[in-house]
Amino acid sequence: VQLVESGGGLVQPGGSLRLSCAASGFTVSSYFMSWYRQAPGKERELVASVTAVGGITNYAGSVKGRFAISRDTSKNTVYLQMNSLKPEDTAVYYCNAKRSMVAARDYWGQGTQVTVSS
Hints:
Distance between the termini: 37 Å
Number of helices: 0
Shape: globular
Structural class: mainly beta
Number of strands: 11
Order of helices and strands: EEEEEEEEEEE
Largest sheet: 7 strands, mixed
């Protein structure tokens, strides 16, 4: 199992970015997929997730209405569309995969830096 994130960068407040998580070794539609983020000096937090069955999405309250998680099975990739970005969204964003929501074993990507600043 391998996860490779991309799409991070520097963006002004109010701007948008789309993060990608390219998966190999498994099918994203059969795993519980999530995006986490970790800001300097803070704990890693769950940002968004999507279930394998039904594609049910869930979001942290701080990003609800601004971020959207999606998956493209033809590319075996999960995306995080981030709109109306705020300075407090600055963090390293990580992709996570596990076989189910309650699975003990999970897999992480290397992370991609998102910086929101004017």
